[in-house]
Amino acid sequence: LDATEETYPRVECDIDDLTALDPRPLILQPNQTALDATENVLLHGASLFPQTLSTKTSSNLRSYILKRSRSLSPSEKVDVIMNDYRTSFTLSATEDPSVATALMEIANNQRLSQTLENLMGPDPTLMEFQVIIA
Question: Rounded distance, CA 17 to CA 26, Å?
Fold first, then answer.
């Protein structure tokens, strides 16, 4: 693919396309299984997996992301819809220890891993780690 080519079509949505009017149905509860999470993703298109990262990892990663976002070159920024108030960029596992730790915690989260396998098949691979700051 050409680096400037869009791989996701822009789709106009209206109120009839919404599956939730507030974020609460997207947030998985501790008692929900990977199958519940899979069904939630299929219904809403996304789900939030709370406490996937430890508090320490989350804090370290957030600090690094905020620091890095202040020094981004224009070529490092990824186009996002409504980007007047948002910045997006990708992270590499080797650029900071906090990124590698976060990726390890994500990979070792059983509910998330099983949900991804349910959606994509056995042994899915994380290809990109993208940050959006609003």
Answer: 15
Task: Quote the CA–CA distance of 31 and 56 in Å, as a whole number.
Answer: 24
Rounded Cα distance between 133 and 121, Å, is: 30
Rounded CA separation 70/27 (Å): 30
Residues 51 and 129 sit within 8 Å (Cβ to Cβ):
no
Structure tokens at 27: 């947030």
Half-sphere exposure of 15 (CA within 13 A, CB side): 1
Tokens of 18: 């919404």
pLDDT in tens, 74-116: 888 887 776 677 888 888 889 999 999 999 999 899 999 999 9
Burial of 108 (0-12, 13-18, 19+ CB in 10 A): exposed
Q: What is the pTM of this model?
A: 0.77
Helix, strand, or coil (residue 57): helix
Name the token pair of 5: 């080519």
CA gap 46, 96 in Å, rounded: 27
* Phi/psi of residue 34, nearest 5 degrees: -65, -35
In the prediction, which pLDDT does 67 show?
94
